[in-house]
Design goal:
Length: 183
């Protein structure tokens, strides 16, 4: 099994980061959309704590992925894609990368602004990036929420693009992400 990417596909590291991020982001959306409506209860605190730990994991994975992408070649988009399709694909990918950093970062800042620091899976208290601040908390909460909505839109575009490549263009763009390249 190959760790790095090649021209033919993604290596184990890029593939694992991609699918771990997918799973975590879905879990984070589920928690984000349900925990806020819960009545004050131990369950609510547990869900907030889990949301923060999973979100910080996504931030670390996004950092790792950006570095790995710079160190590695990336399999090229197929020949024959129209100019506007290439622009849309690249804009969606870049948008997702930016949001996978912006969303956890605003969540982390928000935790500081509301003086409720994250505790990474109960292992260590994560330092706050800013002190308690009511105005900052309001702004950060809106950014966190709307950046989340925008990420949901980008994910829908991303999945629609992958399905189009598979079922209409009949190229390898989807299948090369389903399993890591062997050699
Ligand atoms: C990719 C990572 C993340 C995603 C996709 C995400 C997504 C969301 C979503 C969808 C909501 C619900 C927003 C709403 O409609 O009210 C939410 C709320 C929240 N998130 Fe995140 N989040 C992420 C990372 C983080 C991190 C790292 C933290 C803190 C360390 C965090 C802290 C919070 C808090 C405290 C709320 C509740 C805000 C409130 O009380 O209304 N999030 N998040």
């Amino acid at each position: 099994m190959r760790l790095t990417n090649s021209e033919a596909g993604y290596g184990l590291v890029h593939w694992a980061i991609h699918w771990a991020t997918v799973g975590l982001v879905f879990w984070l959306f589920y928690l984000g959309w349900t925990m806020t409506d819960l009545p004050l209860s131990p369950q609510k605190f547990q869900d907030y704590a889990l949301h923060k730990s999973l979100g910080l994991t996504v931030l670390m994975l996004a950092g790792l992925r950006i570095v790995w992408r710079r160190l590695n070649e990336v399999p090229p988009l197929p020949d024959g894609m129209k100019r506007h399709e290439t622009i849309l694909a690249k804009a969606t990918h870049h948008g997702i990368y930016v949001l996978l950093v912006l969303i956890p970062l605003t969540g982390w800042l928000y935790s500081g602004a509301t003086a409720s620091p994250a505790n990474y899976f109960g292992l260590w208290e994560v330092p706050d990036l800013i002190g308690a601040n009511e105005t900052a908390a309001k702004v950060l909460k809106v950014i966190h929420e709307w950046a989340g909505n925008l990420l949901a839109v980008f994910i829908i575009l991303h999945v629609a693009g992958a399905l189009k490549h598979h079922f209409i263009d009949r190229d390898t763009v989807l299948t090369r992400m389903l399993r890591p390249v062997k050699d």
